[in-house]
Amino acid sequence: MDTLGLLALSPPGWGGTLLVGLWASIRIAVGAFGLGLAIGLAGAYGKIYGGPVLRDCLAVYTTVVRALPELILILLLYFGLTDLVNKLMLASGYGRIQISGVTAGVLVLGVVQGAYATEVLRGAILAVPSGQIEAARAMGMPAGKIARRITIPTMLGLALPGLSNLWLIATKDTALLAIVGFNELTLATRQAAGTTKAFFTFFIAAGVIYLVISMLSTWGFARLEAWARRGDPPRTAGGG
Amino acid sequence: MKDTAQANPAPRPEAIRVEALRKSFGPHEVLKGVSITAREGDVVTLIGGSGSGKSTLLRCVNFLETPSSGRIVIGGEEVRCRPDGTPADRRQIERIRQSLGMVFQSFNLWTHKTVLENLIEVPVHVLGLPKDEAVGRARKLLDRVGLKEKESAYPAFLSGGQQQRAAIARALCMQPRAMLFDEPTSALDPELVGEVLAVIRSLADEGRTMLLVTHEMKFAREVSDHVVYLYNGVIEEEGPPERLFGAPQSARLKQFLKSVS
Ligand SMILES: Nc1ncnc2c1ncn2[C@@H]1O[C@H](COP(=O)(O)OP(=O)(O)OP(=O)(O)O)[C@@H](O)[C@H]1O
Ligand SMILES: [Mg+2]
Question: Which family is this protein grouped under (chain A) (predicted)?
Answer without folding.
Answer: Belongs to the binding-protein-dependent transport system permease family. HisMQ subfamily.
